Amino acid sequence: MAFGTQDDTDEVMNEINMTPLVDVMLVLLIIFIITVPVMKHSVTIDLPRAANQQQVTRPETNRLNVDAAGQYFWNETAVDDAQLQARLAEAAKREPQPELHIRGDRQVRYERVAQAMAAAQRAGVRKIGFITEPTTP
Prior knowledge:
The protein has about 140 residues and is α/β, with parallel strands linked by helices. The protein is about 40% helix and about 15% strand.
């Protein structure tokens, strides 16, 4: 029983199956037929022009300096402990909340700086930064 010759089964198919390509082409053609009339029926409107500049609102910064004697300076103005608490409470209520930059003298006791940080925390100040000087090599 011979089922055929060896040449019939080893034959290489050298033609491209065009059916899937034709299907894709027909689907694209239908999509274009549907969308082109929709794009032609547009209404012309004279729209206003707007500037494309981003507005950056930077919050103001308050500087709290502590000198070597432990005296507080709010934006270069000397204040006592009660005035400091009042100014911190006022700054905490503003929106956007200004940043508080604390600069402590090298000779001041850390306790005075810690008291200022605690007062800022009690007042509700959320943005606190420290100003330091870089070391020289």
